[in-house]
Amino acid sequence: MKIIQYMLAGIMLIASHAVFAQKNLVLNGGFENELENWVDYSAKVTPYVYSAGKMSAALFSSDPAKWTGMHQIVTLPKNTQYILMSAKIKADGVSTGKDAWNGALFLFEALNKQENKIGEGINIATVKGDENWKVYEKAYIIPPGITKIKLLFALGYVTGTMFVDEVNLKVITQSEFEKYL
């Protein structure tokens, strides 16, 4: 009887780990609750252009001297070693800025528990011109001392419109991470 209990406990532990590993840690990544859980600097939501659900986030800029965007800080579970970040992005008429990195941006910063940035921000995507919905993703190894990830979306010193939907950050295994190498 004890052996069966231990086997069931082991199966439940493995199953819960597999489910946990697939949980999206981003709150309101589909923008169905408007901009709840997001810090926005000129972001809006729209029910007219979306990839899934009924809404997406939209960033508009007619002034190439400004930075418009939004971000969310995601707390990682203890002992997280690998993550996968992804989002669907659509661009309409995004201009080319004076620097190569200017455009519709999807980037992240690694933070410690005091929310201080560790290292430089890492760009996942820079989109320019017109582009239909496309998934952008990045797998990342979590260095020691990193407990949070700041996901950022912005129009970085350009004009145009950027739509964002289906934002995800998931803990993944080493073997899943290796698929992205």
Describe what you observe in this structure:
It is a single chain. The chain is mainly beta and 181 residues long. The protein has one domain: Jelly Rolls. Helices cover 14% and strands 49% of the residues. The chain contains two helices and ten strands. The strands form two sheets. Strands 1-4-9-6-7 form a five-stranded antiparallel sheet, with no helix packed on it. A hairpin with a 5-residue loop joins strand 6 and strand 7. The longest helix has 20 residues. The radius of gyration is 18 Å and the shape is globular. About 9% of the residues have low confidence.
Helix proportion range: 10-25%
Number of helices: 2
**Number of folding domains?**
1
CATH architecture: Sandwich
Strand order of the largest sheet: 1-4-9-6-7
Kindly state the number of beta strands.
10
CATH class: Mainly Beta
N- and C-termini, Cα separation:
45 Å
Identify the overall geometry. globular
Gyration radius, to the nearest Å? 18 Å
Would you identify the regions where 5 or more consecutive residues have pLDDT less than 50?
6-21
Stated plainly, the CATH topology is called Jelly Rolls
Sheet-strand content, in percent, reads over 45%
Instruction: Compute the average pLDDT.
Output: 91
Note the main sheet: 5 strands, antiparallel
Q: What oligomeric arrangement do these chains adopt?
A: single chain
- Run of helices and strands: HEEEEEEEEEEH
CATH homologous superfamily classification = Galactose-binding domain-like
Condensed summary:
The chain has 181 residues and is mainly beta. It has two helices and ten strands, in the order αββββββββββα.
